[in-house]
Amino acid sequence: MANEPPWWTRVVSDPRWCAAEASTWQPSVDVYRTPAGWLVKFDLAGVRPTDIEISRQGCLLRVAGQRRDLTARRALASYSLEISYNRFERAVRLPADIERSAMRTEFEQGMLLIWLESLTGPAPRP
User: Fold this and answer.
1) Residue 51, SS3?
2) Cα 52 to Cα 74: distance, rounded to the nearest angstrom
3) Cα–Cα distance between 47 and 124 in angstroms, integer?
4) 33: which strand partners?
5) pTM of the prediction?
6) For the chain, is the Cβ count within 10 Å smaller at the N or the C terminus?
């Protein structure tokens, strides 16, 4: 028994306790109406921009990727894990066809900003 790891290490590394590790998580999203179209903001703290995929089809905007736990490589024993790592995916349905709209992205302080601008001129006021 003296060579066994502490109980909390066994619990955190046991797949029965870490079911979330195998599933995808969904980032929080804010959607704004702009004079030119839409701004969709995804909370992706800790995600590298190179690990993000963006697609759109009709009215649907999809963002997927992966958040990696870079600290785990340092062989630290974990005590408590609340941050979701692994694959993520979030789809947002907008009330307009965005497939052919002009798209611009920014990544600022853990937030992915996706600007979608209508190619046919200013968006009508809500």
Assistant:
1) helix
2) 24
3) 34
4) 38
5) 0.74
6) N
Structure tokens, 74: 């340092």
Closest by CA to 82, choosing from 7, 18, 9, 14, is 18
Q: Which two tokens stand for residue 95?
A: 């009330």
Q: Which residues of 37-75 are buried (b: 16+ CB within 10 A; e: fewer)?
A: bbbbbbebeebeeeebeeebeeeebebebebeeeeeeee
Q: Which residues contact 39 (CB under 8 A, 6 or more apart)?
A: 31, 32, 113, 114, 115, 116
Name the 3-class secondary structure at 21. helix
- Taken in order of first residue, the domains within the chain and their CATH numbers are 7-117 (2.60.40.790)
Q: What is the dihedral of CA 101, 41, 38, 49, to 10 degrees?
A: -20
What digits encode the pLDDT tens for the residues 73-115?
Answer: 776 777 888 889 999 999 999 999 999 999 999 999 999 999 9
